Amino acid sequence: MVTRRELLVGAAAFSGSAAASFAFGGQKVAAREIIATPIAHDTKNLFLDLAERPAALPCFNGHTLPLWTFQEGSLYPIVRVKLGERLDTVFKNDLPRAGEYASIHWHGLRIPNDQDGVPFMTQQPVEPGSQGSYSFVPPDTGSFFFHTHCNTSEHFGRGLIGAIIIEGDEVEPPDAEYVLMMKDWRVSPDGKFLPFTTDEGAAKAGTPGTIRSVNGESKAVFKVPSSANVRIRFYNVDATRISEVGFEDAESAIIAIDGNGLEPLLLPSWRLGPAMRVDFLLRTAPPGKTIRFVDYFAKEPVVLAEFVSEGPPKRTDAFVATPLKVMPFPKVDVAKAQHIPFIFSATATGAAIAEFDKNASGIHIGSLCLAKRTFWAINKQAWPGMTHKDLGPPLAVLKSGRSYIFDLQNTTPNSHPIHIHGHTLEILSSSMPHVPPHRADTVLLRPNERIQAGVVGGAPGKWMFHCHIIDHQEAGMMGYIEVV
Ligand SMILES: [Cu+2]
């Protein structure tokens, strides 16, 4: 069991103290777990229209840029579904380029494999001018998102991202809620998109943006009720940026990671790579005062947002974060689990990259999804390069319902947020001073770090497993896991 004292030590280590160390292991005992139960059985209909929509976002300094978005009038649509509700989605591909096909991946949702939205692997992609559809009942509460899964550096770079929130995890509703989507944009000084990916970036930490933003603003300002408990759903939806976010001089707690509720963590900050999310409960400032939300990972801390308190105080009690309800996840049987190593490496430092058996899976992938070059590999396999027309064998084969421990080893000097489709990882231990056990669909592997992550084989099918720094994903650090 993680005690309060251990958490505080962890917080010190997490803040960069070299002297403190924080070893953890075993299962977290959550004595106060309340299981979330379905609250609706209706069907919700969603229409998405992928198209170019020029916009002058506040962060663009007056310039209008040709964004690609999912809906007219919203930079990032926020889709809300109640636990137990079916979501029926129709989407139209109106992207302005011949051959720019699309499919929608629902990041973090443990839905059937044929709804996972990976072109050629789980579905045929949708050509411009055509429509596609999805229908599923999201099984878990929390903060998730959706995006396309091909030519992703450009699609992310132009803004083709939406949030999907599955409601039903709150025991005590907060006084207000805010969704913060952090993304950088690669824009030249004269207001044009720069190339979304570069070889130099792809071979190192990823191609960085030139303008920071939250919800399209350089510094988002939220007017919030005073002395209130508000929920902040923070998303790192950048293609490249690692961040470490927290509130300056405020009482707050981390209540969910990648949508998964947990015993509230009183850490001063949380580190997120691309595609990772964290939910905070924040006690806002007294009337007229402001709390700053800061990225501490930059050389100089950067203020991402401000929460300005207005109106009479809502609460006078001491700040205590009530845990969210949790989902009844299958528990990893650590004693019986089979260990599977995954070594994340640069291709230049590894042995020769394994040649794919070009007919191994019979899956033909489109040229849009093929890497132009490979700098990265998982277990010495790089996602097929330009000359590979067919997908190779899976990185691992899991049996549905069986327990596994992924031994994730980063042998590179770069961080990699590793994402698995259709599953939730149980982070058990790390070789580095780190964070408490938690569940996540995307886990940040720091340079030379080794993490043990438990997983129970989920729904049958082929599930992508890749780095979510989009340049790394598209330059080899991607593969798939087959569940049978
Ligand atoms: Cu990576």
Walk me through what this model shows.
6% of the residues lie in helices and 37% in strands. By secondary structure, it is mainly beta. It folds into 3 domains: 43-167, Cupredoxins -  blue copper proteins (Immunoglobulin-like), CATH 2.60.40; 173-310, Immunoglobulin-like, CATH 2.60.40; 338-483, Cupredoxins -  blue copper proteins (Immunoglobulin-like, Sandwich). The strands form 6 sheets. The chain has a 6-stranded mixed β-sheet, with no helix packed on it. A hairpin with a 2-residue loop joins strand 13 (252-257) and strand 14. The radius of gyration is 21 Å and the shape is globular. The two termini are 34 Å apart.
Main attributes of the structure:
Immunoglobulin-like; single chain; six-stranded mixed beta sheet; 484 residues; mainly beta; binds copper (II) ion; five-stranded mixed beta sheet
